[in-house]
Amino acid sequence: METIENKVVLTADRPTGCLHLGHYVGSLRNRIKLQDNYRCFIMIADVQALSDNFDNPEKVRANVTEVAKDYLSVGISPEKCTLFIQSLIPELFELTVYFMNLISVSRLERNPTVKAELQQKSFSDSIPAGFLAYPVSQTADITAFKSQLIPVGEDQLPLIEIANEIVRRFNRIYNTNILLEAEAMVGKVGRLVGIDGRAKASKSLNNAIFMSDPSDILKQKIYSMYTDPNHVKVSDPGKVEGNVVFAYLDAFYEDKSELEELKSKYQKGGLGDMALKSLLNDTLQALLMPIREKRAEISDNAVIDILMDGSARARKVAKQTLAEVRDAIGLLKCGTDF
Ligand code: TRP
Known about the structure:
mainly alpha; Rossmann fold; Tyrosyl-Transfer RNA Synthetase; 2 domains; three-stranded parallel β-sheet; 7% strand; binds tryptophan
């Protein structure tokens, strides 16, 4: 039997849409493995999602259950992990306020992740303070559960750095060691390209395949994938680099040696896009069919029960950390019935 490691793992998603194959490759697949060996907390970051969707809370609310269904249908188990909703853990926001004192506005403005996000969004000159400060709130997420391992994409590395700076500062200023630094676990698989060939598959670019896509939509998306515009006839030599169908086969086709053969055949000429797309369609239909079926069996009520139960368990842990934090700062202790 494999040993359970002591370290706590925390992962989270902003509930702004259903999860797609990019999430599957980049994180869901990994979480399914991690849940067997670590104590895992998986958070639906609805409060963080509000930082750039504050005017659309309905969208965030609706996607909390959709994302939870995505988790459960791919095999994330509520028996193995604590699945919870950020907004149900008010302790996180008290922690955020204490941490806010330990970082400067200019340090937050220099954060490359936030900078990149600001460029994509249309806040123009009026950046909400809450958006600029979401990395501080994320520090509260990480520290509240004493998580030391954070599986994230590369884009999140600057946020872990900020979290660790705040942790060191907190421990130094309040002369304690209660907060733990965290380590990012960056997946080896790169990000999945969009079906249009753009560097990133995302809901907002409308170029992603969702875990919950019905089979006809999946097929339609695969057959519309960008390949090599100069590969007109089957006998023409084709390009593998930049070819979306190959990028997806790389991510999902198990028989790698056969895939290499297909690539060389395609490059020489003699392998058509249709045959290739049909292979990818078979591969992804086989992957997503059981996921789709499982999703259909999960009722909204069952999801809510799981999230409420997980949130209650998560809250106990966060409460304990908050008590330690208040004590370290030297705030008045409140009674248990307060
Ligand atoms: N920022 C993360 C994302 O956009 C979500 C997130 C919120 C998170 N809190 C976290 C990730 C804590 C890791 C740890 O995907």
